[in-house]
Design goal:
alpha/beta; 10% strand; Rossmann fold; 247 residues
């Protein structure tokens, strides 16, 4: 109590989904180059973060679902220590062909989400990922695994109503995921629904874009976060000047 707070946020690279701008580090990144060739809102981005250790059985179900859904996708998977990944169904990358891109390395997530080709984001509901997805105005497929992620899911799907739940029901106590496998059929249902063109989905897309715009207003000139950042800088300068005078 009695402490002053400054509500400061940092703008994301994905603030303009249509700008096509890429910084020097990621300009030649293969994912962004691949996305440039896809239609607007046609690609599903799948990523569960770098910390989660998802069992092979679950990864296999995700792969089968992505294959069956028929939609283009980018899947960023945590790199395994083993040379061969036994979970990937035989011939998967051949069957999905040019509509799929699997990466086992770091990816510029905020720039991917900000790309105009991205039409959905399957996520574990980690807070940073959610903020990036919402800021980009992208609707989400929520798949919480542990920590506060189930609460985050409810915020997205039931409060903001900008996503659909895949059906994850059991909380895990750590990064090693041991909850029951979510079957292929549930995943296919969520993907085909969100990436479809129903009136309900169109309303979700409209709301997601609207909330994305709202999320950026505080960091624009004159916004609350913009003003608080200026106030914080002035406070630091004042304290520094005071100490200099005392010395």
């Amino acid at each position: 109590m009695g402490r002053k707070c400054w509500h400061v946020d940092v703008p994301s690279h994905s603030s303009d989904r249509n700008s096509g701008e890429k910084n020097s580090i990621t300009e030649q990144h293969s994912i962004l180059n691949w996305l440039d060739k896809q239609k607007p809102n046609s690609v599903l981005y799948v990523c569960f973060g770098s910390a989660m250790r998802i069992p092979d059985t679950q990864l296999a179900e995700i792969a089968l679902a992505l294959e069956e859904s028929g939609h283009p996708f980018v899947w960023v998977v945590r790199k395994r220590e083993e040379e061969k990944e036994s979970w990937l169904p035989e011939g998967f990358e051949t069957k999905t062909g040019q509509r799929s891109l699997i990466k086992r390395e770091w990816a510029p997530q905020d720039l991917i989400l900000g790309h105009v080709a991205i039409g959905g984001f399957m996520t574990h509901c980690g807070w940073n990922s959610l903020v990036e997805g919402v800021a980009a105005g992208v609707p989400l497929i929520t798949w919480p695994l542990f920590a506060e992620q189930f609460y985050n899911e409810k915020l997205i799907s039931r409060v903001l109503k900008i996503g659909v739940e895949v059906g994850s029901e059991e909380w895990n106590s750590g990064f090693e995921i041991k909850s029951p496998v979510v079957g292929k059929d549930k995943i296919v249902k969520a993907v085909t629904w969100l990436m479809g063109g129903s009136e309900e989905v169109q309303e979700i897309r409209r709301r997601a874009k609207e909330i994305g715009v709202m999320l950026h207003k505080p960091v624009e000139e004159g916004g609350s976060s913009y003003s608080d950042l200026g106030a914080l800088i002035e406070e630091i300068k004042a304290r520094y000047d005071c100490r200099v005078k005392l010395d």
